[in-house]
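To assess whether ligand presence alters the predicted conformation, the chain was also submitted together with LLP. Input:
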Amino acid sequence: MDRGSRTDVPSSTWITERDGHLHAEGCSLESIASAHGTPVHVVSSAAIRRAFREIDDALAGLPHLVCYAMKANGNPAILRLLAGLGAGVDAVSGGELHWAHRAGVPVERIVMSGVGKTDDELALALRLGIRSIHVESASELTVIEALAAARAPRGSTEPIRVGLRINPNVDPKTHPYIATGIHGTKFGLELDEARALAERIAASQHLTLEAVTSHIGSQLGDLGALTESVELTGRFFAWCRGRGLSPRMLDVGGGWPIAYGDEDEAYPSYARIGDAIRDGLARAGLLVEGRLADDVLLTIEPGRALVGDAAALLTRVVHVKHQGDKRFVVCDAAMTELIRPSLYGAYHAIVPVRAPSRLPVGSAEIVGPVCETGDFLAEGRPLAEVARGDLLVVRGTGAYGAAMSSEYNARPRAAEVMVEGATATVIRRRGRYEDLHHG
Ligand code: LLP
């Protein structure tokens, strides 16, 4: 992912220059920094709505459900916004189930993925009655069945709806850490095992097969891989139906990409991704005259595509220092607010809030204050002259930014602010020192 010397900044629909300063929708970033402090995650409600519409449109004509992979950013304000647009969620932990439910996401629109769901988490999923628990191992199925059997005498006779997540062994040709559908990774079930588990579900009076699912990875650029994975998932879905099971949900995962600015080639449009999914469905024999049968609910689990480009991290320069032959721009945001550059060498465009079109004067190490050499937001990045007190905006941080933040070095969590036109509302208050240690 890392191409540190690039200067490319993807165009934005919600961060725009006005009077020489950057604005987020109708709010100046300077006023947000003054009112709410820095570092602060700024989220655009309009950008989330727009992304949802674009994704939803890509699947027009197919009965479908968009289950937001809330691990990308589980802020309840974002969940409420998306649920209001008709989205469900893909949850991966008890905490995510709790918050999805609390934010008002209907249980019929909640699915749960994950290789290591604990007994308590599974019990919560059963209690809430979510749409599908996507099973990833025989051992997990055994636990779910035992939990389901244990509740049967208490008068609950409805079978528990489960899904089978297959590992289609398709290489998405993306960063190895975010490739999840290849044999040899921990995710999903190889087909033989999935078939055996389907037979177990068919024989169980406590379980019913609701979904067949797969997810091959993130930042999918290779549409051939997606089509192949949809085809294999669709074929397994059809196989299950042929065995007398009646799954309704055909969940083909997430991974829809966003542009961060360092791409050599543009990612395919969402319309083309929708077509790649249609191709996979057609190859699996599930489309008749371009239509999916009414009793099949195509489900997708995008995370990044819904929120990634809908937030930015606003940070203030604390010091500028020259050391060796390098210019270090030390900011008040760090790997604690955005770990993607340190963890994956990920590229995020970074621009000054004041006069953002000023030309770079040279290369900068844009770093945070955390005591790790690996604490950087960008390495060797062309950047204009900036001084202590200036504001920088780090773009494309909506997915896996705030969500992967930590309190390392006893740094309280940054605030999150949602903008809606000219209004900025705090959707997560800044952490306090007292929040760092409880009990
Ligand atoms: N469904 C499942 C089962 C997943 O595991 C994931 C992501 C998604 C959906 C959503 O993927 P998306 O549409 O956001 O690409 N921390 C990494 C990304 C890890 C993704 C993990 N699984 C990053 O910062 O790039």
